[in-house]
Write a structure and sequence with these properties.
The chain is an all-alpha fold. The chain has 8 helices and no strands. Helix 2 runs parallel beside helix 7 and helix 3 packs antiparallel against helix 4.
Length: 223
């Protein structure tokens, strides 16, 4: 891997934006339906995604395998990195440090979130229609809410700052002015996508999802 580190890093950077960056944005928009349209809107968004053709192949090759490579190689890069933000008080050095730290947090958070949702659906413990109830249980637990909030902010920062680094490393933003403009754009992306996720998390803790969770539990007990 050391001998071809340039190409591995390029692939790592590319996968962080395509397809994983797209997945984060789509996930944020789907979850935001919980805030905008309540349980019914969220259920429709989940159903739409899961009714896509060859959705399993899309998940495996468009999400899970890229996440595994990006995450594992990212952990390797973090292990090899010299976190020098304590010596150099420049914004980019702090961003570099935070990129490594949030990468580790994001990798753990995604595996936890997938286990709580997608894996439980695959095991038959939860249906797609009951995912709103699952998220309600998570959002109404103060400890889990805080952990999810940390995971969300870490993941969105990692994507947004990684997008800036991608544009630089791929020669898209070369001049200092272009890099400054892209930094501002990436900051806006961080704020907007974070807001979508946070509003969704707040919506999941609301009375509408509480009633949906109670209805789902009643149906389970009847069955």
């Amino acid at each position: 891997m050391n001998g071809n580190s340039y190409y591995w890093r390029k692939l790592h950077s590319l996968l962080g934006v395509i397809p994983l960056g797209g997945f984060i944005i789509v996930h944020a928009l789907a979850n935001f339906q919980a805030y905008e349209r309540g349980p019914e809107g969220f259920t429709k968004a989940v159903s739409f995604i899961n009714d896509l053709p060859i959705v399993t192949l899309l998940e495996i090759f468009g999400i899970y395998l890229p996440i595994l490579f990006h995450g594992i190689y990212g952990l390797y890069m973090a292990y090899q990195s010299n976190l020098n933000s304590g010596r150099f008080q420049y914004g980019r050095n702090w961003a570099f440090t935070m990129q490594r730290i949030t990468g580790v947090i994001t990798f753990i958070f995604i595996f936890w979130h997938v286990f709580e949702t997608r894996v439980q659906v695959a095991l038959g413990n939860v249906t797609h229609e009951e995912l709103g109830s699952t998220m309600h249980d998570i959002a109404t637990s103060p400890a889990l809410f805080i952990l999810y909030l940390i995971g969300i902010l870490a993941a969105v920062f990692h994507f947004s700052n990684g997008l800036w680094a991608f544009l630089v490393s791929w020669g898209i933003t070369v001049s200092p002015k272009a890099q400054k403009v892209s930094a501002n754009i990436c900051m806006v992306i961080f704020v907007l996508v974070s807001a979508l996720f946070i509003l969704s998390l707040i919506a999941f803790s609301g009375d509408e999802f509480k009633e949906a969770a109670s209805a789902a539990l009643a149906l389970t007990n009847i069955g």
